[in-house]
Amino acid sequence: MLQIKNLHAGIDGKEILRGINLEVKAGEVHAIMGPNGAGKSTLSSVIGGNENFEVTEGEIILCGEDLGELAADERAHKGIFLSFQYPVEIPGVSVTNFIRTSINESRKAQGLEEMTASDMLKKIKEKAELLEIDRKFLSRSLNEGFSGGEKKRNEIFQMAMLEPKVAILDETDSGLDIDALRIVAKGVNTLKNEDNAVVVITHYQRLLDYIVPDFVHVLMDGKIVKSGGKELALELEERGYDWIKEEMK
Prior knowledge:
By secondary structure, this protein is of the alpha/beta class. Helices cover 39% and strands 28% of the residues.
């Protein structure tokens, strides 16, 4: 579903990603872990199409289509979803209006008619209940005055409404208490199926207690240096990253 081949990218002339190779198949959950400065958030930004980063080599392929020349909004319409580590506040734009516009723009890009108001309301109600979101929350300005947990829950609500092919969750667990973490994880687990895939970027094993990965990858110095099953995350929690650095020498 998502293939990344020999991806090199950087910013302001500084190379950050130094040859990333990753293959994510439909129905799979992949976790990417690594120390600060390893390039995890850069990877998510580059996949999402953040134009501040320059790709100097390699390919990003979604369902057989090279995304290299596509802008961020075009990638979103194709089925890439990026949940931000620090969601932006947008005063004056309600959560509902933002979602409605996002869905209809994607449908337009795919040659589909706008979703009817009744279908939209039905879907909003269904997904809000899934994520235990109060209906009053939906009329508030996007992320304005939201707690950390509310912002992250709103990101997963957007994911639920947009139904992407590949969802990339960039440190969704940062700043969450245990209750918010459980609700966010429940939403992700309910939404994943055999027709989509999830890439979770995290520092901590605790998120992976709730969103159990099929594969765990360790990113260091801009490269994936080790991959394994969910037990690798437990080993990282226990031993840190120094032992992997020793293996690399």
